[in-house]
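ok here's the first one, seq then C-alpha cells
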Amino acid sequence: MQSQVSEPYTLTAETVLNPIAEIATAEESESQEQVTKQPFWFRTRFIGCMELYADADTVAAYLNTHQGWFRRCAHPMKAEPIGENGYAITIGRFGSFGYEVEPKVGLQLLPPEQGVYRIVTIPVPDYTPPGYHVDFKADQVLVEVPLEQATVLGSVMTRVEWKLDLTVSVWFPKFIQVLPSSLIQKTGDSLLAQIVKQVSRCLTRKVQEDFHGTLGAEVLEAFKKQRSLLAHQPVCQQCE
C-alpha cells in the first residue's frame, strides 16, 4: 500500500504557488474567498505490490479483519471508522502563501469478490469538502508465490498486487488564475503522484511489520533482516 513531524504528510506546493508571491498583496484575502467556477482535475494512476511471507489464506484472513490493523497502520494519518468497513481519513495539510487545504476522504474497504479486494470513495458523514472532491478507486489481488528455500519466514510468499486510480478536483481561489493553466495542471498532477507514492511507501511498510508481527516476534525479526538484505523498500521518515 517525509514531512515535518508537526503536520502529518505536510507538503508545500511552492512549485505551483511561488510565481504568485509577488502579486499576493493585501487584496489576497479577499480574492481567496472567490473561487473559480470550474475546477481543475488532477489524476494519477499508481501500481504497487506488498510482499507478505505467508500463504494467501493467512494473508486474506488478516486483510479481512482490517478493523484490527487499519487505523494503527494508517498513523500518522487520522482514520476514524465509518460503519463496519469505512474510514474517514485526514491525509495532512497542503499549501503555501496562505492557501491551504487539509484533505479528508471517506474510504470503504469492500469484502473480497472473486479474489479482488476493492477500496472506493464514500461520503464522510456531516462533512462537506471545502473546495475539492476526491474519487478513489483501488483494486488488490493476492498472488501466492512458492519460495526456493523454506526458512523461518515459511515456504511461500503472497504478493498483494494493487492498482489505484485517483482523481481530485479542486476549486482554486481566484488569485490562482493568474498562473498558466498548463503550469497548474502539470504541477498538480505531479504533486498528487508524489503524495500517493510516499503515503503508499509508508503504509506498506507499516502493514508489513504489523502483519509479520502477528505471526510472532521471530518472524518479524526475520522479515526485517530479509528486507534489509534486499534493500527493497525505501524508508519513509515518518515510519521510523
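and now the second one, same deal
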Amino acid sequence: MNKVKIKMATLLFFGLCIFYIANANAGTKPKPQSLKEVLQTLSPSFRLKVLNPSASGYNYFSLRNFGGHVVIINFWATWCPPCRAEIPVLEKFYNAYKPKGVVVVGINVNSNMSGVKSFTKRYGITYPVVYANSNIISNYGGVNEIPQTFFISKSGKIMFHYIGEISKGALYGITVKLLSMRQ
C-alpha cells in the first residue's frame, strides 16, 4: 500500500474516532469507565492465561511485560462473522510486525470458553489468545460491540480505538504511525 493511501486511511480513521468519541455516550446508561475516559490513558493492565500456548509460545499474557512495544488488543468471539474475517488479516500482520516489536493479543468474549481453544487451532492463530473476564470488559469501556481493536503506544497509552472489522489499511497505517512515535 502506498504512503498516500495509508495517510488517507489514517485521516479517515482519526475523523471516525473523533465522531465516535463525541457521540459514544449519547443516550446510554453510564458505564463503569467510558471509552472517552479510556482513550489517551494508560492501558488497563491484565494478566490472563493464554488459550493457545503451543502456537503462541506464551502460557500467560501480561500487558505489563510489553512496555516499549506497540500492542494491539482485539476483542472478538468465535460466533462473530466480522471477527472471523479479520483473523487472517491479524495473523498475517502479526507475523510481519512481530520482529518490529509489535504484539497482538486476541481477547475472546464468548459466553464460555468451550471451543475457543479448538477454534484457535483450526484457524491457525499464533498470536496469544486469552479469555475476557468482566474486569477487562469494564476496564476497556464496556466492549458492547465486537470486534473492537485498541492500539496501545510504546508508553502504554491507548492511542486509537476501532469498532468493527478492522481494515488492512487502518491496521497497518495506525501501527506504522505508533512505531514512529518516540513514546
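notes on #2: The two ends are 25 Å apart (CA to CA). DSSP finds seven helices and seven strands in the chain.
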